[in-house]
Amino acid sequence: MTDETAVGAATAESPPASIGGEVLIEVEHLSKHYGPIRAVDDVSFTVRRGDVLGFLGPNGAGKTTAMRLITGFLEPDAGRVRVAGFDLATDSLRARQRIGYLPENAPAYGEMTVSGFLDFIAQARAIEDAPRAIARVIERTGLSRVKHQTIDTLSKGFKRRVGLAQALIHDPEVLILDEPTDGLDPNQKVLVHKLIDELAADRCIVLSTHILDEVERICNRAMIISQGKILVDSTPEALIARAPSHNVIRLSLYQESPALLDRIRQEPWCDRLALRSPLLVDVYPQGGENHLAELLEVIKEAPISSIHLQEGRLDDVFRDITEGVAA
Amino acid sequence: MNRSHGRFTGLRAVFLRELKGYFSSPLGYIFIVTFLVGSGWLTLSRDFGRFLELRDASLTPFFTYVPWLFVVLVPAVAMRLWAEERKSGTVELLFTLPVTLEASYLGKFLAGWCFLGFSLLLTAPLPLQLARLGDPDWGVVLTGYLGCLLLAGCYLAIGMLFSALTKNQVVAFILATAATALFLIAGLPQTLDEIGRLLGSYPAQVVASLSLSDHFATLTRGLVELSAVSFFALFTAGWLVCGMLVLDRTKAS
User: Fold this and answer.
1) Which residue among A130, A181, B17, B204 has its CA within the 20 to 30 Å range from the CA of A242?
2) Which element (helix H / strand E) includes B143?
3) Per-residue pLDDT tens digits for A125-150
4) Which residues of A touch B (CB under 8 A)?
5) B12 contact residues in A (CB cutoff 8 A)
6) Which of B3, B13, B88 sits opposite A120 (nearest CB)?
7) Distance separating alpha carbons of residues A259 and B68, to the nearest angstrom
8) Is the pLDDT of residue A313 over 70?
9) Do B252 and A74 touch (CB under 8 A)?
10) Which residues in chain B touch residue A104, judged by CB atoms under 8 angstroms apart?
11) C-alpha closest to that of B115 among B145, B147, B144, B156
């Protein structure tokens, strides 16, 4: 797949069918410029209840700016954002009541204790039963052990959890998380993934990340952004299916067999063969479809030591799409 | 969850957080100690206030030096108010809460002003001692304190604007100190004489009416003139509004 076809296919593709909940975020023709730089360039999309949308993109692609526009921290140069039906331009406070936001690097007032900080957030959000909301969110994010500690003394993992706690304290319908797992160790990442899984059912979540595995693991929708534009809006599965190596079958032979390779080449579904070494062959199917069953028929008595059906890697798709634009 | 939404939504939460902050960090205590030691020394010293030598039951020496002490100390309180929020990124947290810019700006200002007022209250032993030594004019003492409080509000509003202007606290401190000193020096008799000599009496009158020291002097003489009080109120409000406009432009940069 060349770069051009990747981008061309991306723009022609329609957004994935969401789970079908009500629309919670509506973005229409949103633009934000910094001087000559178009951080967000005429972007439109909607996010529904039940969606876990991953923003992917190279550094400086406009992910953070897009999130700052959706949360009302920045005002757009053009376009409109509605959150849970409230227009950010005219009804900003009502919209913000419905958003939980974890900004990049999870900023917090370092001199405050965890519970003092959460109490401030609860007061600022005018939560009626603040002590109960704080206890619930401390429990949910596993902060009980450190709740009386000042935030400055916490490890990075705990600081991130404090950031998540303040974003969740009012049980928001819309959750915006800017790199929620950045800088966390693998165990802490799993905890955050689990938390997002638990939260996903009855709200919509938009998160940005660099880690493509994370998108496969927790998102049901992925958007690739570059230079302020949406290049792809799809599901992680559909994205993987566009990898050049999707459904490629790798055969290891224990002795060379040109006759076998010829036979495979003549199969109608076979696009081409790639010889990695005399004993290692990649079989590319037509149209990236799965033809493992047909191949097994052909190689019944051949000198094969192993067969491996490749899924394709999101990294390759990501690189194809984003480099195609940068070039 | 949905209380009324107005221009000042969230003011109370920000105010309380800030006010608690002064008493849960060393900064607040360092300020109070420095202010009390500084004002006490300047008032009693034989080189400056000569409070005891004057044998006069008034707080004039104290009210002479407090404005100068505030030139250094109030910008030290104000410098972190926005610069720190912007540097640490908490400004993004604050302005994505259902809190308006006006509410958080005023919340911080009022908390700082209350803290400065509390510091002034701690100088109460001075007038109490005065009452033991003689028979002070309590009206003058009270209007003097009112003047100090209003002056502190002006300085704080000036300092907050510079704190909103730059992420660097040292730069904010220096600019605020320079600006407050300028508004104080402009009203000194020496300055006004010089301006009068160079430019004529009308410009000197204009400068005097715009300076802080002239209006402050009115109050320390025991006169609560509407013009002086409204000058302080307008001056503070002007700097606050300008500071909000500055912050609205700089908050995301």
Assistant:
1) A181
2) helix B138-165
3) 999 999 999 999 999 999 999 999 99
4) 68, 71-74, 93-94, 96-97, 99, 101, 103-105, 107-112, 116, 120-121, 123-128, 166, 170
5) 123
6) B13
7) 97
8) yes
9) yes
10) 89
11) B156
In this structure, the answer to whether residues A187 and A214 fall within a common structural domain is: yes
CB neighbour list of residue B23: distance below 8 Å, 6 or more residues apart: B29
Tell me whether residues B1 and A120 touch, CB distance under 8 A.
no
d(CA A290, CA B32): 76
Q: Which of B17, B96, B98 sits opposite A73 (nearest CB)?
A: B96
Give the residue from A32, A97, A113 with the most B CB atoms within 10 Å of its CB, the best one to mutate.
A97
Token pair in block for residue A97: 């009541």
Count A/B contacts: CB-CB distance under 8 Å: 77
Query: In what order do the strands lie in the sheet containing A249-253?
Result: A270-277, A280-285, A249-253, A304-309
> What are A78-121's pLDDT values in tens digits?
999 999 999 999 999 999 999 999 999 999 999 999 999 999 99
Q: pTM of this prediction?
A: 0.86
Inside any domain, residue A166: no
User: Within a 13 Å sphere around the CA of A187, how many CA atoms are in the beta-carbon half?
Assistant: 3
Contacts of B252 in chain A (CB under 8 A): 68, 73-74
- Which position has the token pair 């410009």? B203
Pull the structure tokens for residue A108. 């917090």
The pLDDT value given to residue A19: 52
Is A301 found in the same domain as A221?
no
Specify the CATH number for the domain of residue A51: 3.40.50.300
Alpha-carbon gap, residue A75 to B189, rounded angstroms: 48
Domain range for A303? 249-310
- Judgement on whether residues A290 and A184 belong to the same structural domain of the protein: no
Question: Tens digit of pLDDT for each residue in A32-47?
Answer: 998 888 999 999 999 9
Q: Are residues A81 and A208 in the same domain?
A: yes
Residue type, A293: A
Give the per-residue pLDDT at A5.
36
Q: Are A121 and B17 inside 8 Å of each other by CB?
A: no
Complex ipTM value: 0.89
Q: How far is A37 from chain B (nearest CA, A)?
A: 14
A89 and A19, same structural domain?
yes
pLDDT at A20: 64
Give contacts of B24 with chain A, Cβ < 8 Å. Answer: 111-112
